[in-house]
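Pipeline run #58 for the internal structure catalog. This entry was flagged by the ingest filter as a single-chain record with no existing model, so it goes straight to prediction. Upstream metadata was stripped on purpose; only the residue string is passed forward. Reviewer on rotation: M.T. Logging verbosity set to normal.
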Amino acid sequence: MLESVAATDTDQLAVEHRALRETCGLIDRSERGKLALSGAGAVEFLNGQVTNELADLRAGEGRYAAFLTHKGKMLGDLRILAVDGELLLDTERVALQALFDMIRRFKVGYDVELQKRTIERGLLSLIGPDAERVAGAGALDAEEHSNTPIELGGIVALAIRTDLGVDLLCDAADTERLREALLARGATVVGEQAAECVRVESGRPRYGLDIDETTIPQEAALNERAVSFTKGCYVGQETVARLYWKGKPNRHLRGLRLSAPATTGEELRLGERVVGHVGSVALSPEHGPIGLAVVRREAELGARIAVGEHGSEAEVLELPFAAAG
């Protein structure tokens, strides 16, 4: 009976994974933390707090960034969207309180107002090559984080370009109606397991699983996406810049091809030395058990490292995971 249930789960995962890779999958991400900044000083203030350049941010554009301790360690990451005279921020729920506290503490002296939006706004993610059509977002620019208002089934939403599709931000009261409209246009509901599998395959780390308060952005391969080295000062800049210009990180974000399913947090060892811990894990229909981890540089690409205490191992891979041939 247990084997039958497992087979059914595996079959369903394969169906959902195929939708995400070939058509369009739909998952509700409304639990993500959401804030809004408004006021004449909003851009200037936030630009001094986060790693990416915001001074040239125009309406309809967005940036991905991190916010750091003074020692350059990550307190969280966030997406910043310029919309209708305000900045919309969304972050992992685990980092929301740190983001809120940082803004509230340091905005003194700036013309900035902070509003909570987590409960007030719904967020639906469309993932897959057909996402733009399903969202009715043909006017959306190709640049990641670009955004534009749309109307779908009488519901007003903000369409946001992602690396894998389109996100739709709407009033919380409209979330279910928008979901039904997207299903009617051909989206397939998928579960967290399938969506996380595609994220892991794509090599995108997630704060709270793969990266945390011990991580410097370069260690998580975030420099290109999240860090400007030409902007003015921001919190933690000295450490980040010094590592970029003069040093080599001791750790790197890598993919893991696992010999058996593993658990987030398990130790990774090269010989007798602990070189990291398992981050996100997934059971990929294409690759089998896989994961992400920030590992010490001694664990070179192609190395085989021990996982946990149960005798399994992992091969260290470059990201993203190569498509199955």
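catalog note: The CA atoms of residues 173 and 206 lie 28 Å apart.
catalog note: Residues 33-116 form a domain with the Alpha-Beta Plaits fold (CATH 3.30.70.1400).
status: ready for reviewer M.T.
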